[in-house]
Predict the structure of Molybdopterin oxidoreductase.
Amino acid sequence: MTTTKNPRSAGFDPGRRAFLKAAGLTMGAGAAVVSAGRIPGPLSAADAHAAAASGPFESHYSVCDMCFNRCGLIARVKNGRVVKLDPNPHFTKSRGMLCARGQAGIAQLYDPDRLKHPLLRQGARGEGKWKRISWTEAMDILVERLGEIGEKYTRCGMLFSVGADMQSQFVHRFAEAYGSFNITSHESLCLISLNRAYLDTFGEVPFADVLNSRYVIMAGANRFEALVTPDSMDMVEAMASGAKLVVLDPRYTKTAAMAHEWWPIRPGTDMAFMLAMCHVIINERLYDDAWVAEKTFGLDELREHVRDCTPQWAAAETGIPGPDIARIARELAAAAPASLIYPGRRTSDYENSTQIRRSTAIVNALLANWDRPGGLLAARQVGLKGVPIHAPWYDDNPDDRVDAHMAPLMFEEEGSFVHTRDAVIAGEPYPVKGWFVFKTNPMQTAPDRARTMKMIEAMEFMAVADIQMSDTAWMADLVLPMPSYLERKDPCQALQGSSACACVVQRDPVVPAMYESRPIFEVMKELAGRMDLGEYFDFTIEEYRAKQLADLPGAAEVLERDGVYYNPSKVYGIYDNIGYRTRSGKIELMNQRYPQAGLDPLPVYTPPASPPQGTFRMVVGRNALVTQGSTTNNALLHELMPSNSLWMHPDAAARLGLSDGMEVRVKSAVGEGTLALKVTEAIREDTVYTDTGFGSISKGLSNVYGNGLAIAAVLESRVDAVTGNAAMHETFVTVTKAGGVS
Ligand SMILES: Nc1nc2c(c(=O)[nH]1)N[C@H]1C(S)=C(S)[C@@H](COP(=O)(O)OP(=O)(O)OC[C@H]3O[C@@H](n4cnc5c(=O)[nH]c(N)nc54)[C@H](O)[C@@H]3O)O[C@H]1N2
Ligand SMILES: Nc1nc2c(c(=O)[nH]1)N[C@H]1C(S)=C(S)[C@@H](COP(=O)(O)OP(=O)(O)OC[C@H]3O[C@@H](n4cnc5c(=O)[nH]c(N)nc54)[C@H](O)[C@@H]3O)O[C@H]1N2
Ligand code: SF4
Ligand SMILES: [Mo]
């Protein structure tokens, strides 16, 4: 065992490399059973980390927060310090797994780059001159500036951007009480076009019963790197018992590598593939006649719509041979209803993403897999109660969100970050001059960073609450240090994972909050109190939890005992006696609402633009060692993933005279940057790719400041036409040798 070369990781135990690598995707199968009250140790995973686990330690349940999956964990605490994070064997959603990022949570807790006290900007925005201030001063500033902006521009002059967190609801609650309906989240950079597509087909957004499926097509999803629990583990399990996996991806991802078939589809053409699936299934009558007739609406119109969408036609669009498309359709239908087109998750990719995902939903409908084993599952009953707020009415507020009607079928609660940004810059339909950001980092995760900076220039006041000096915090006027997930008490949260669970989790501090960090609940509560809105926060977290659990007697005790509470609710057949929440009350192959919104009721295929001569389409995606744009600075993960590089096919590289490892300049219509070239056959010749979360402008992130390319600087700001979801695969770039003449 060697000590680290990176002095920033000096506080960690030797052997962590091997331990992290081993931990990549292993399950805590040998984990000891946890009994009431005390948790015995060590677990088998801990054996790999014997140095840390030896001797007496305390064990505490918690829930991982290194990504949104919220896997159950047990924190081992020795002499007041967290020394190891292990999976909670009671936690079926993650099948007893804690991934590499999850285990690296320790390095987040003890990161020397943590924000330690409130900071007030001194120099120009983004210059990096800060003054340490007290929480009293920070709260005074918040009260004063929010009051001022509300007076001057109405309450909707404040924008709240809120990421995924068990305390996010308190920022929403505050925004509502304060009186702004301008709230955005990461979701309009993530999955709202997917949600729209499935809501408008089935009336709800499904879970995929991967575990019991016999045939899965993953198109534009990468479950063995972009981990979604339990789907990632269930796919492995299903394949071990004979299920077939077909992957369509312009990149040879880890998922593609594990699949039975990988097709490097031409980017943006998935709808052609899906319409051809429909063509074959309908023409060859491979569907369940009675089921489809009873449950769906618009089969005749769909039949007509896909009449010419033959496999040969789709072959010319997708680059996948026609006979293979026909064969895959037949195999998929033969395995139905225990077969599915995986709905995916991130659909912030194309300008017609909602319609692309509608086409996947329609194939699923023809497979008759809704609400049945191996198919798409409806939401189960968890039983956690909401704590409603009756927000005050402000007469002078505008009628609607600042981005209202900028796309035909937006989600009112989310809006669209990209459209909101446009509206803020334009100052139309009304001025928005204040920005409160909690746990989201649009400087890295929204396309077109220069435009985000322009939006920030338009703001009179900007506050960011984060655990580290993110690129977004770096641009703020006021920075608020937050405790990490291992240091705070969070409300209960409902979680679902297909057939694995409908459950409730909560968090209690594993160690006391470090530095001067303060949970957002306390900040919002104090702010509300000081702004005469105290009645909306007249509870403690414990009281809030009790309200949430009111309909689940005994759940609080089970949560204490097991770290998770399960509701044994129905998994299949939920729709046996209810109608679908669509206009027709059926599964809408043909959408009844779309024509009024000026949209095609059936997905109409338009070929994507080909990259102009000398350019490449840039796509984004995931790496198992990085969460979006935020974990790249983590010392343990940084060791395994020190920078990003640009994937390019060898033939393309040869044509351009570029070679592996060379520093290259990537340039789009909106920005540019440099990084190392990775020449690889794992990508199509017309496409390039790089990982997110590098090339930071924040000097507070020692490992990623100026390291690699910030893909957000290069991505153009395009949107899905239906929802306003960001469309991040619509950028063409040139690639030249860095420093050379271009
Ligand atoms: N390790 C890790 N796990 C994560 C996350 C993380 O950051 N790190 N994030 C979580 C979150 S928030 C989300 S939303 C999910 C995202 O998980 P996924 O929905 O699986 O999304 P991506 O990983 O972005 O994968 C999209 C894939 O589509 C490919 N692609 C690009 N264009 C096309 C196309 O036109 N057609 C097809 N068929 N494929 C195309 C890309 O190469 C990429 O591999 O992952 C979650 N899990
Ligand atoms: N280029 C590119 N853009 C993308 C994506 C991509 O793959 N590539 N993915 C898209 C997708 S699917 C999504 S979901 C979005 C996600 O977009 P974001 O919501 O911006 O996600 P993160 O990058 O994870 O940023 C989370 C922020 O929260 C901070 N944080 C972490 N823990 C805590 C905590 O306990 N408290 C507080 N207050 N802050 C904390 C982190 O430091 C970080 O600044 O990005 C989207 N944008
Ligand atoms: S998938 Fe990994 S990072 Fe995400 S919650 Fe689970 S253990 Fe944590
Ligand atoms: Mo996401």
Remarks:
- The first strand starts at residue 58 and ends at 63.
- Residues 64, 66-67, 69-71, 94, 98-99, 101-102, 227, 229 surround iron/sulfur cluster (ligand 3) (CB under 6 Å).
- The chain is about 30% helix and 15% strand.
- Confidence is low (pLDDT under 50) at residues 1-48.
